[in-house]
Structure formats: C-alpha cells, structure tokens
Amino acid sequence: MRKLLLQLDSSRHSSVFDQVVAYDAGADEIMSYGGVVPEDVRDLVHGLMFTRAPKSLKSSAVWIGGNNMSQGEQLLAMAVDAMFAPFTVSVMLDSNGSNTTAVAAVVKIEQALGDVKGKRALVVAGTGPVGQRAAGLLALGGATVTITSRKPEQGEKARRSIGERFQMPVDSAPLSDASQAAALLEGVDILLNSGPAGVMMVPQTAWANRGIKVAVDLNAVSPLGIEGVDLNDAGVTRHGAQVYGAFGVGNFKTKLHKRCIARLFEANDIVLDAETIADIARGMV
C-alpha cells in the first residue's frame, strides 16, 4: 500500500521544503494544493478518506502548512471536523515550520535543564507563531514565562492568544530597543530569541555571566539575535550559559520533522500539533 500525503497549504504555492522532507521521511506520493481556504478542506479530505477501506487508511495522511499559522489552525480544525470513525486519517499542522521549530527549541532547553518547572523564561519577540508556541510549551512545563514585543498592544494580543490556546498564563513586556534587554533579564533562567532575521535583540552584555542557564537564538541571519551565540552552537557553554544557535536547533528540527511525517503513517487517528509533536521530540532525546 503506497503512502499518500495530502499537502494543504494556505499559501499560494505549496512548500517545496515540506515536500522534500516528506519524501525523505517515506511518503510515496504527495498530492499538493496551494491557496487552500477552510471551505476547500472537507472535499479534499473526503477524497483522501473514501478511496480506501478503513483498515488501509493508516497509509493516507494530511499535512497542513503555509506561511500563516492562524490560517493553518483553521485548516486543521476543518480537517479534523471532516472525519468520522472509521474513516479517519492522521493529520499534522506545521505552518511555516512553527510547531517543529518551537518544539525543537523547547525540548533542547528541557534537555539542558532537566526540567523547566519553576524556571523563569523570557521569549524575545514572542508575538510570532514560533514564539507563541514556545512560550505556551514552556508554560505547560511549569516555567514562568514572559514574552516581549515592540508594541505593548501586540504583546497583549499575543499573551491572550497563548492563554486561550494553551490554557496557561504568560506575561508580556515591551522591548523596543536592545538597550532594554538587560533589565528584562534580571532573574531569568531561560532566554529564547524568536525575533526577526538579521536583528540583534539581546546584546552580549545583557545576558553574559548574569545567571542565564540556557540561551537559544533561532535567528540564522547576521547580525544574530543574541549577541555572543554562534549559529552552530549545540549545547556548548558560553559566558556561563548552555547555548544553542539556529543551526544547533535546526538540525534537530529537521530530524523531528521527518520523524513526525513517518509517525503519520503508523496509525490513522493521530493529530500532531505542538503538544503531540513535543511528545515525539522528547522521545527522540
């Protein structure tokens, strides 16, 4: 039985990156659709479900991607709603790589500390999809989490969104200039930057040898987001902290991405979102 993956992208063009990874993970055929809106999902999913007997549906799966996580969440909800026993297939949401990237970062932090419970975490530029998911996962793990934003209203909106999605409280604080970072890092154990590419958010003087236990920078474009962290850092100690750069996290993220695709074809009733992807990642380390 050939492994068929239905790729639903909210973006106009479906992601070539996601297709390559899916083939490398064992998919035999990928049926790709771009520009998918919620109203399209039911018929596309039914086309995948009803052409095979229920006992064969573990060889069919749905991948939801695109550049917009909120749109991806809508597509996921529609896909799950379109299924009913025994006609179900496994489905995964990873719009713009947000889930696998956030999970990879959080699991590396957990690996470094053993446990994030009771730790204080600052997620810099935490209003985007990666930052929001990382903040939510850290909060679920028992950390006290603060996200930063350039504009207070954006931070408040993201704070509410995280609370609704993960049912966990987080705080927000403005960070409009790198010179403000040092004050926000007082007493912080975990520093995670999910800010825009090529923008230095945290100067080295703000975090080096100041009690930070783990620092993770997801920015891969110079200047890096956390000054003093190298792209390839993968758990090395710098300035008193265990640090991870974008490639140090990204290598694990790619392995996780492939493992999740493979997992979709192991059963026909799996829904992979942030929490369930995190479970898979923890099993890998």
UniProtKB/TrEMBL annotation:
Taxonomy, superkingdom: Bacteria
Protein name: NADP-linked methylene tetrahydromethanopterin dehydrogenase
InterPro entries recorded: Aminoacid_DH-like_N_sf (IPR046346), Methyl-teptahyd_DH_N (IPR015259), Methyl-teptahyd_DH_N_sf (IPR037089), NAD(P)-bd_dom_sf (IPR036291), NAD-bd_H4MPT_DH (IPR035015)
Xref: Gene3D superfamilies: Methylene-tetrahydromethanopterin dehydrogenase, N-terminal domain (3.40.50.10280), NAD(P)-binding Rossmann-like Domain (3.40.50.720)
Residues annotated as domain Methylene-tetrahydromethanopterin dehydrogenase N-terminal: 16-96
